[in-house]
Amino acid sequence: MIYDDINSFGSAGVKKSELKKKYPEENFEDKLNELTSQDKICISKKGTYIYCWGKEFYLDYLLVSDIKFKYLYDSIIGIQRKLNNYSDSIFKYVEKIDCELTEVKNSFNRIEDKISNTKIDSNSVEYDNNQISVDTFKEHFDKAIVTRSTSIGWVELSSVKDELCETLDLSNNEFYNFVSELIELYPEKYELSSGGYEGVVLRGIIHGFVRCI
Fold first, then answer.
1. Burial class (CB in 10 A: 0-12, 13-18, 19+), 162
2. Tens-digit pLDDT profile for residues 90-116
3. Residues 14, 52: contact at Cβ < 8 Å?
4. Whether residue 17 has pLDDT greater than 70
């Protein structure tokens, strides 16, 4: 086969005339043209003769025989290496920026999650508090007074507070706000008495005892 024969000569190449003697068929030129169009061989003048080389060996031939070509080739390779190094540096820089942006994005996501959780918790608290109506509080409040009242009916508000705050999950302020609201809504049903360390403040005086009328 002509292609294998040409490659066997390596970077030295082979004279076209010698190939033609070895392959005297009429389509010899067509075969060479086909190999050239397929980018498998190179045909060029060497001295006064035309030579054929395998493509891989033709570059070796030029580097050895043509000083200008070798200089140009080395310059191109040098530029290519610089570009590769520059590309690597850019890639590493872009990769670093990408990692930093990802971390910033993750930080924002964590902040958003915390804000969302805070909103959910706040909504839950509001929802729970709204579930406790004045009527519900009144029902528990009346039962506690009946259970804890003395023979004359008085009950210390602080003891009722401890029970209802635990049962209804109320804060101290919420408890006394409900008590104040009950007194305003049902003045004929409840009576307050001054005294105690804590209670409902009326006219600047602590009223720490209550009874049902």
1. middle
2. 877 777 777 777 877 777 777 777 776
3. yes
4. yes
Q: How far apart are CA 199 and CA 179, in angstroms?
A: 9
Beta bridge partners of residue 172, listed in sequence order: none
What's this model's pTM, rounded to 2 decimal places?
0.39
The model's pLDDT over 146-162, given as tens digits with 9 standing for 90+, comes to 888 877 889 999 999 99
The total number of residues written for the chain in this structure: 213
CA angle 169, 172, 176 (to 5 degrees): 105
Q: Whole-angstrom Cα distance, residue 144 to residue 161?
A: 9
- Both structure tokens of 70: 């070798």
Q: Which residue has the tokens 């930093």?
A: 100
Q: 155 pairs with which residues across the strands?
A: 210
Q: Are 1 and 40 in contact (CB under 8 A)?
A: no
Integer Cα distance of 43 and 36 in angstroms: 8
- Nearest-angstrom CA–CA distance, 149 and 27: 125
CA dihedral 197, 200, 206, 207 (to 10 degrees): -90
pLDDT digits (tens, 9 = 90+) for 36-81: 999 999 999 888 999 999 988 998 999 888 888 888 888 888 888 8
61 to 9, 10, 70, 182: CA distances (angstroms): 11, 9, 10, 108
Return the structure tokens found at 121: 């918790």
- Rounded to whole angstroms, the maximal C-alpha distance in the chain is 139
